[in-house]
Design goal:
- The chain is of the alpha/beta class.
- It has one domain: Vaccinia Virus protein VP39 (Rossmann fold, 3-Layer(aba) Sandwich).
- It is built from nine helices and seven strands.
- Strands 1-7-6-5-2-3-4 form a seven-stranded parallel beta sheet, with helices on both faces.
């Protein structure tokens, strides 16, 4: 396993921590965890605040292709693909790449980019509907932390099953108590989160041998 930031090229977003903290009622958290229209395209305090394609994932896609040495005809899966923006951009930066996505949100998949129609699957990362070693790379960005710890272990093991040693997982974490407090004032959907060393214990428990990085609220 190796810590590497494959999302370094992604623009930083401005977060209104106070407004989000004020919205953290049990009712709003339950709404966000439905991953429907309100989460993706409703108010910012309840999710993305409008999840629209703007090309920001293109440089990230380039870094992913370079990191895994992907070529036309090879296969990559994005677990937790939402509307498929990264799937679209992976195909754009590497024409001929067989890129696919999987997400639990029917709303997100029904509002995908035209280029990704037929490539995005409705499903749960606890049991990925693909054979062993059927991908050259599997990525999962800011998705695994939305599961309880036991299920997170299972999902990570599934990623490893599909592409042993060729995974990349990014999850919510924090390195200091101050970062943890800030995270807790922002989080809506994460069910398991911890310091990096505890995440690494989870990865090892799952038999994961791919790469990883952290999303830290600052």
């Amino acid at each position: 396993m190796r810590e590497i930031n494959l999302l370094a090229a992604l623009p930083k977003t401005k977060r209104n921590i106070q407004k989000r903290a004020e919205a953290q009622s049990p009712e709003n958290i339950a709404i966000a965890r439905q991953y429907g229209e309100i989460y993706f395209d409703g108010p910012r305090e309840l999710g993305y605040g409008g999840y629209r394609y703007d090309g920001r994932w293109v440089p990230v896609a380039s870094d992913i292709v370079r990191h895994f040495g992907l070529k036309p005809g090879m296969r990559i899966l994005d677990v937790g693909c939402a509307k498929g923006f990264l799937v679209k951009d992976l195909m754009q930066v590497c024409p001929g790449l067989e890129a696919f996505g999987l997400d639990i949100s029917e709303y997100a998949l029904m509002h995908c980019e035209p280029e990704t129609v037929g490539r995005l699957h409705l499903g749960n990362c606890l049991k990925l509907p693909f054979p062993d070693r059927s991908f050259d790379a599997v990525i999962s960005l800011n998705t695994i932390h939305n599961l309880p710890r036991e299920e997170a272990v299972q999902a990570v093991a599934e990623i490893e099953r599909l592409a042993p040693g060729k995974g990349f997982i990014q999850v919510d974490s924090y390195r200091t108590p101050g970062q943890r407090e800030l995270f807790l004032s922002w989080v809506l959907t994460a069910k398991f989160h911890d310091y990096p060393d505890k995440w690494l214990e989870l990865f090892e428990e799952a038999g994961y041998t791919g790469d990883y990085y952290w999303t830290i609220v600052e």
